Amino acid sequence: MKPIKLGSSFSLVASVLARNVHAQCQGAEVITRDIAIVGGGATGTYAAINLKDQGKSIIVIEKRGALGGHTSTYHDPTTGTPINYGLQLYHDDEVSRSFFALLNITVSGGTFPISKIPLYIDFTDGSPVLNYSIPPLNEDYFQALHKYPYLENGLELPDPVPEELLLTWAEYMEQFNLTDDAIATYSRPAVPGDLTKILALYVFNNLNTVMLEEELEGKIIVNANGDLAEPYSNALAELGSDVLLNSVVTDGQRGSKPADGVRLCVSTPEGSKRVIAKQLVFSAPPVLENLEPFGLDERETNIISQFEGGFYYTGVVTNLGLPTNYSYVNRGQKTQSHVASLPGVVMFNPTNVEGTYYYWYTSLSDLTKEQVETETRDTLKLLQKTVAGADANAEPQFVAYKSHTPLHPTASADAIRKGIYRDIYSLQGYRNTWYTGSLLVTGSSQLWNITSQLLPRIIAASEQ
Ligand SMILES: Cc1cc2nc3c(=O)[nH]c(=O)nc-3n(C[C@H](O)[C@H](O)[C@H](O)COP(=O)(O)OP(=O)(O)OC[C@H]3O[C@@H](n4cnc5c(N)ncnc54)[C@H](O)[C@@H]3O)c2cc1C
Ligand SMILES: *[C@@H]1O[C@H](CO)[C@@H](O)[C@H](O)[C@H]1NC(C)=O
Ligand SMILES: *[C@@H]1O[C@H](CO)[C@@H](O)[C@H](O)[C@H]1NC(C)=O
Ligand SMILES: *[C@@H]1O[C@H](CO)[C@@H](O)[C@H](O)[C@H]1NC(C)=O
Ligand SMILES: *[C@@H]1O[C@H](CO)[C@@H](O)[C@H](O)[C@H]1NC(C)=O
Ligand SMILES: *[C@@H]1O[C@H](CO)[C@@H](O)[C@H](O)[C@H]1NC(C)=O
With CB atoms counted within 10 Å of each terminal CB, which end of the chain scores lower, N or C? Predict the structure, then answer.
């Protein structure tokens, strides 16, 4: 699609687009709303519930069969016990508490989910990594973090971006004498890909004050009933037919003025539907494959094409054949700071159902469920040979799985140097489209905060 120019060529392109939308959605039911929300994960659901609470009509278009994004809960078939194998906890703050209050959720204090003794093992050969432990962060780390307050709640970077933030974390630690923090900073789970290549900017943005409060001050809340997906099942019940599950946008038109609004053709299990809305909130990962159907212009394409998500997968496994009193954590025997080799299982963590574990897996390229489960099974068969007290005849059973790919889109040092974050922030409201989500920070509570600050602007645009 060529960039849309104003004037007669705009109306020509628009009418061609309108015909396309019309062709695919011919005779389809028309859904007219103030705001269309694409993606029903942490931020999309937050936007939906709060916009509705503020009297706006909404429709959520979600690709999967449930709301909740990276929140994944498996229910043990015999006891019904919820096992959270994606997201593990929420930050205890006003934004989270008021969201949960809107959803009638009873919360309780939580703890960091390290319940059993970790065994650090090199999963490439099954050998134990001896004398390895994770030290607390040094005061030096906190001093460094506090130099960059603009990385705490998003990525509104100064211009020019300090070059030191574009070093890899290994280079930054070397230059600023933080190498004593290497193991502590590399041992964070749910960071996709090669940890030794991650930019310092993303380390500070992720391992920020809010994240550290959870770990060091216990500022954590969880659902009192143990099911971290409860906010999303309650939200689904509340939103009802305002959510289209298993649905994706196949074609979209977005005008350049608020009055032009947004028109989408949506493929749903009940056939195509036309959505006519004033504004669009895009909360799915903003990568090209997700945004292509929306008729991006050149400016949008140039920005969006520079973000790439990481490759991350999670699942639940039983009958591991390993002693059930440990967690099994992947570390490199000979690698830099003992970071785990890729692709591979990050760790197997026990759950509150004896013998049932959840595992996380990361890679440098996209994998299928079959590939992840085959590799994970091979890892377990290897550990069965090397861990004392294991049963080499046990056949692991894979009972739940989710792909989290593309996870937490990031950009290259060069793109950041050239102002990609300034550019993405400048897209807010452009062509009636608003972006929120894990592009800006990783924790869901912080993302709700960022989203709550964006909502008044979206509402104002929808009232123009
Ligand atoms: C394993 C793991 C553990 C985590 N643990 C925690 C934790 O303990 N605490 C915490 O605060 N954060 C945690 N996070 C991070 C947190 O879950 C994310 O930052 C947060 O979910 C991001 O919210 P989001 O709205 O940007 O994206 P998501 O929650 O991923 O929502 C995006 C939604 O868009 C949908 N979607 C994707 N493509 C399309 C499309 N083309 N059309 C329509 N819909 C689409 C997806 O299915 C998804 O529902 C964890 C993440 C992972 C992967
Ligand atoms: C919360 O409870 C109130 C009062 O009972 C009800 O009106 C509302 O629909 C509930 N919301 C959700 C998300 O369950
Ligand atoms: C591990 O520590 C013990 C005691 O502190 C020491 O005897 C041993 O040599 C160490 N092993 C390695 C591989 O460093
Ligand atoms: C680097 O840090 C260590 C302690 O972490 C300290 O002993 C040393 O003097 C520091 N070196 C420099 C050059 O600052
Ligand atoms: C864990 O269980 C194994 C085998 O069941 C046993 O040999 C080992 O001593 C236990 N470890 C701890 C720390 O309890
Ligand atoms: C929300 O974001 C604002 C602005 O970035 C910040 O000052 C505030 O501390 C955040 N609140 C919470 C609860 O995180």
Answer: C
The pTM score is 0.94
Instruction: Kindly state if the Cβ of 45 falls inside 6 Å of ligand 2.
Output: no
Domain assignment of residue 445, given as a range: 8-70+229-307+411-462
Q: What is the pLDDT of residues 30-60, one digit of tens each?
A: 999 999 999 999 999 999 999 999 999 999 9
Ligand 6 atom 7: residue of nearest CA: 153
Task: Report residue 371 CA to chain centroid gap.
Answer: 21
Which one, of 286, 265, 317, 323, lies nearest residue 406 by Cα?
286
Same domain for 322 and 259: no
- The one-letter code for the residue type at 303 is I
Residue 139 CA to ligand 3 center (angstroms) comes to: 27
Q: Which two tokens stand for residue 306?
A: 């520079």
Per the structure block, which two tokens stand in for 192? 């996709």
Distance 217 CA to ligand 5 centre (A): 31
Residue by residue, DSSP assigns 326-383 as: EEEEE--SSSGGGPPPSSEEEEEEE-SSTTEEEEEEEESS---HHHHHHHHHHHHHHH
pLDDT digit string (tens) for 367-415? 999 999 999 999 999 999 999 999 999 999 999 999 999 999 999 999 9
Q: How far apart are CA 48 and CA 384, in angstroms?
A: 47
Of 177, 178, 179, the residue with max ligand 4 atoms within 8 A of its CB, to mutate for a pocket test, comes to: 177
Within a domain: 354 = yes
